[in-house]
Amino acid sequence: MYVVYWLRSRGTTYRVSTQRIRVERGILSKDNDNVELFRIDHLDVHQPFGMRLVGQCYLHLRSSDAGFPTVIIYGIVTVPQWTAGHDDGEVVDCAHESKPVGVA
Asked: Is residue 101 situated within a structural domain?
């Protein structure tokens, strides 16, 4: 079971630029999806118990793009101010300041 998660994580690459998020999935065959940042309507930071133990979280982004309505980015190193109870506006501001965010 853990091998499946490991293979899935090895086969997924996230590229975040100032204009879009590009998600590339697959090991032998590749699927590429793009979502423009201006289409992101809502973001949630989730920290399940297992991820909290290793200091990670995942982002759940919802967009108005009909072809790619949701993006989930796993393995983000937890940024303390994201989980300190700030409102969504402050989280988005923090994300747009170009601070380094670790992606596994």
From this structure: no
Give the range of the structural domain holding residue 67, as residue numbers without chain letter: 2-95
pLDDT digit of tens for each residue in the chain (104 aa)? Answer: 567 667 777 788 888 888 988 888 888 888 888 888 888 899 888 888 888 888 888 889 899 988 888 888 887 887 665 555 545 444 444 444 444 444 44
Calpha distance 95→104 (Å, rounded) = 17
Whether the CB-CB separation of 40 and 55 falls below 8 Å is answered with: no
In a domain, 100, yes or no: no
Confirm whether 6 is domain-assigned: yes
- pTM for the model stands at 0.62
